[in-house]
Design goal:
Elements lengths: L2 E10 L2 E10 L10 E7 L6 E4 L1 H9 L3 E2 L1 H10 L1 H13 L4 H86 L1
Parallel strand pairs: 1-5
Antiparallel strand pairs: 1-2, 2-3, 3-4
Helix pairs in contact: 1-3, 3-4
Length: 182
């Protein structure tokens, strides 16, 4: 029986998440499985992977073949590196201490990368909000200036109309007196 480590699709259209399972290669994608190893959710940034590391390592050691995507997930979680290091220990190429040191160094580097990505995304979101707020302030200032300019023009037009209305009223009596004297 050929055993594969693969993904089982769940969720809804355009918003899928996956269970990482060990299944017979002849069973359907979402059908019967031997054991569930974890969950993979690509909808988050960075993608969320919850994997039972020891069980995944045990299945890889007994010969379960991961599919391409499952291989990438297992590699990302370090299952394949740990399997490689354990193989080196069995052959005598490495000691347990050297293998553990390599594993811990890799794990620390990976955790640092993930944390850097999370903080980078958080900082980018904060900067985007600040930029949007600054842009909104500029738009509001431009609107306020346009409104003030319109109000000043309207006030000037009203003052001109009032002055024009008062000027003919003063000129009219003078005009009436002029024909009487002639």
């Amino acid at each position: 029986m050929a055993v594969k480590i693969r993904l089982q699709r769940h969720g809804k259209k355009n918003f899928a998440f996956f269970h990482i399972v060990v299944a017979d290669s002849r069973s359907p994608r979402d059908g019967r499985y031997i054991e569930e190893l974890g969950v993979y959710n690509p909808n988050t940034n960075p993608a969320t992977i919850d994997l039972n590391f020891e069980r995944a390592l045990a299945w890889v050691k007994v010969g379960a073949e991961p599919t391409l995507t499952a291989r990438r997930i297992l590699s990302y979680e370090g299952v394949l590196l740990r399997h490689h290091l354990d193989g080196g220990i069995e052959k005598g190429a490495l000691t347990q201490e050297v293998a553990d040191k390599k594993w811990n160094d890799w794990k620390a580097g990976r955790d640092a990368k993930i944390e850097a990505k999370k903080t980078g995304l958080k900082n980018a979101a904060i900067e985007a909000r600040k930029a949007a707020k600054a842009e909104e302030a500029k738009v509001n200032e431009a609107r306020a200036e346009a409104i003030a300019k319109k109000a000043a023009e309207l006030a000037a037009a009203q003052a001109a109309a009032k002055a024009a209305a008062e000027a003919p009223a003063e000129e009219a009596p003078a005009a009436e007196e002029a024909p009487a004297e002639a």
